[in-house]
Amino acid sequence: MSDFTDCDDATTLPPDLDDAALAVGVLRVLLDRVGEALGLAEAGR
Length: 45
Hints:
45 residues, 64% helix, rod-shaped, mainly alpha
């Protein structure tokens, strides 16, 4: 990733917002996987 010395650039987020966006993305993937696993467990009964 690039360094965040110039936060005036609209294409780059400050590091804390970038980390938050990354965390949200990871959580969405994890929740999706958990949902799939639960769905498969229900279907296997």
